[in-house]
Task: structure prediction
Amino acid sequence: MPNTLVRQFTILFAATLLSYCSSPIKPGSKQIIGLQPLGKYDTTQLSYIEKELQQFFKVPVVILHETALPAAFLNTTKGERYSGDSIIKWLAFNAPDSITKVVGLTHKDIFTTKKENGQIKKPESTYAVWGIFGLGYRPGRSCVISDFRLKTSEHTKFQHRLRTVVIHELGHNQGLDHCPAKNCIMSDANERIQTVDNSGVNYCGKCLHWLKH
Ligand SMILES: [Zn+2]
Ligand SMILES: [Zn+2]
Result:
């Protein structure tokens, strides 16, 4: 058995022995989170996300083999940006059946098209190719997080940003909408960098209650 498989198996085995009672997911729901590096991805950063998600959700987290972003997802009208919507549909379609939630991770810039009443939000030049930190449907099986817009020279601040965006998008995947509670990790303010830095580290009590019932 190759080392990576042994490692994944060991993690799965150990993690299934953990109690799920303090996890912010519905008790008894057997989730396995897969981290999918999209192209070359920083391995220290990958380990950081793996560790944070294991500690936070108390479910097994496995690292999937790196896969390249399809060139068809690239849009060049505002520099190089990959379609977040295309990525999450593709991730959900291609993830192994054993993975219940797949988190795509990229250093490339990603975008979505902001809509209002079914139309591209005006001005179209701004919102057709709108740069984002992450994207996850509600509910959904997959999300994607880019650190392209999260960069800062302050390492701790960067890690906080990354963790906040990953847990925010996984919250959407679990069915959570944006939350009006200021300190909640599901606050819509967390789609702006100024407020990600001040975000709380957890879902608020109301969101946690909703997730567990
Ligand atoms: Zn959101
Ligand atoms: Zn909340």
About this structure: Residues 13-20 have pLDDT under 50 and may be disordered.
